Amino acid sequence: MLGSIANLQPRQLAAQVLNFALVLSTAFMLWKGLSVITNSSSPIVVVLSGSMEPAFQRGDLLFLWNRGMETQVGEVVVYNVRGKDIPIVHRVIQRFGGGSAPLQLLTKGDNNAADDTELYARGQSYLNRRQDVIGSVRGYIPLVGYVTILLSEYPWLKTAMLIFMALTVVLQRE
């Protein structure tokens, strides 16, 4: 296999590397395009825990929408906690304000005993719909996101996959 790389002409190797870069940049542009269309910084998320079972399972891929939303009780939203990186997927159980007052939400995981006030940032009792919520769930594909969970739990798998993808592109003959 390494002999195949050595047999490539510099021009062929450069073309394959550029092809790989094109694939990566296309994926990035699609992600950014979805972000603009959905008005969400993260239009697709993966369920990482069992807190929303039975509605959503660990590994489900969720599609979010954040345009013109008047969030209702019972709606499933994805939100960020200030100071933390991982978004949370939970259901709205109460709403306060709206209209001229900022809309505030109280959330809870379907499989959790208590509401999310312990998960919110220090001193925060409710979510601010505009500042904290990434989007509302509009669709999902079961278990497809489990690959993301495996890649985050086993970092060596991410490296192996990137090496495999790079070698596939470089060794591809056109």
UniProtKB/TrEMBL annotation:
Broadest EC class assigned to this enzyme: hydrolase
Keywords: Endoplasmic reticulum, Hydrolase, Membrane, Protease, Signal-anchor, Transmembrane, Transmembrane helix
Chemical reaction(s) catalysed: Cleavage of hydrophobic, N-terminal signal or leader sequences from secreted and periplasmic proteins
Chief location of this protein within or outside the cell: endoplasmic reticulum
Single GO MF annotation: serine-type endopeptidase activity
Membrane topology: Single-pass type II membrane protein
Statement: the UniProt record of this protein carries the keyword S-adenosyl-L-methionine: no
Subcellular location: Endoplasmic reticulum membrane
GO BP of this protein: protein targeting to ER; signal peptide processing
EC number: 3.4.21.89
Superkingdom of this protein's organism: Eukaryota
GO cellular component, one term: signal peptidase complex
Sequence similarity: Belongs to the peptidase S26B family.
Subunit structure: Component of the signal peptidase complex (SPC) composed of a catalytic subunit SEC11 and three accessory subunits SPC1, SPC2 and SPC3. The complex induces a local thinning of the ER membrane which is used to measure the length of the signal peptide (SP) h-region of protein substrates. This ensures the selectivity of the complex towards h-regions shorter than 18-20 amino acids. SPC associates with the translocon complex.
Function: Catalytic component of the signal peptidase complex (SPC) which catalyzes the cleavage of N-terminal signal sequences from nascent proteins as they are translocated into the lumen of the endoplasmic reticulum. Specifically cleaves N-terminal signal peptides that contain a hydrophobic alpha-helix (h-region) shorter than 18-20 amino acids.
Name of the protein this chain belongs to: Signal peptidase complex catalytic subunit SEC11
Taxonomic lineage: Eukaryota, Fungi, Dikarya, Ascomycota, Pezizomycotina
